[in-house]
Amino acid sequence: MLSHWRQYLAISPFYLVFLAFSFFPVLYSLYLAFQRWDGIGDMHFVGLQEFRFLWKDPVFWLSIRNTLAIWVLSTVPTLVGALVLATLLHSVRRFKGFYRIALYVPNVTSIVAVAIFFGAVFSNNFGLVNAILDTVGISPVPWLSNPWLIKLVIALLMTWMWTGYNMIIYLAGLQTIPKEIYEAAKLDGAGPVRTFLQITMPIMRPIILFTVIISTINGLQSFSEPQILFASEAANPSLGGPGQAGLTTLLYFYQSAFVNNDYGYGAAIVWAFFVLIIVLVLINWRLVQRGRKA
């Protein structure tokens, strides 16, 4: 082992940076969850008091409900749309490279620019969507004032950004399926729908499981979307839009820790949310695995 010290030295900067800026802050945040600290003065150990307050905090549970609603509204159409687009693109003969780039571009676009664009398009008074509706005689829709429409706009933003990413993953999986399997199914008289359900889906199940887990983790961590979409001031009591309908859990964590300077409570929020993410990931994994065994 010591004979390879040069190789270990060459890769050591990554691990040193990881320990200093990732691993240590994670452990330190767990320590902070049991303290009361404003970021400047002395820390005071309070045990589970922060978590007991968290359990009774109505704003925290509101943020959980908002986050779960946005997650469902964005994840389901994202994965379904990605699989459909990947299947269609897999059968395309010409301009396949162009379609890949065009569908993947939203994922590498600045989320700040995308959120500002969506805010302008869905503006209550001067938005493009309401302008189009007005031309056909439909009254303006309060996209950024209605509680459920607020969640829908955030979900649409996330769907637009992540569909192309998942499509590329599905397309890579489709390209690994041997053509002989489809040819044999065609000779047996299987139609396109039956081929997709009984051949493509079972073979793609591990890849679908991966995208479900990744989409669960990413979808539950929505933060920049509602913050920028509603141009929320940090000290605004209605952070996350009217009625806090777009207040996600990470946005509430940001407000508690970096606006209210309650770092102990902010750490408690983020660790409780981490446990929720793990639980949802395990549930999704079990559901997909059960379907695979069936």
Radius of gyration: 23 Å
Question: What is the SS-derived class?
Answer: mainly alpha
Q: SSE order, as H and E?
A: HEEHHHHHHHHHHH
Rounded mean pLDDT score:
87
CATH topology assignment: MetI-like fold
Strand content: under 5%
Structure description:
- The protein is mostly helical.
- 73% of the residues lie in helices and 1% in strands.
- It contains twelve helices and two strands; from the N terminus they run αββααααααααααα.
- The protein has a two-stranded antiparallel sheet.
- α3 packs parallel to α7 (147-174).
- It is globular and about 75 Å long.
In short:
The chain is 73% helix and 1% strand.
State the main characteristics.
294 residues, mainly alpha, MetI-like fold, two-stranded antiparallel ribbon, 73% helix
Task: Walk me through the topology.
Layout: H1 5-32, E1 35-36, E2 44-45, H2 49-56, H3 58-90, H4 96-108, H5 111-121, H6 128-135, H7 147-174, H8 179-187, H9 192-220, H10 224-229, H11 249-259, H12 263-293
Antiparallel strand pairs: 1-2
Helix pairs in contact: 1-12, 3-7, 3-9, 3-11, 4-7, 7-9, 9-12, 11-12
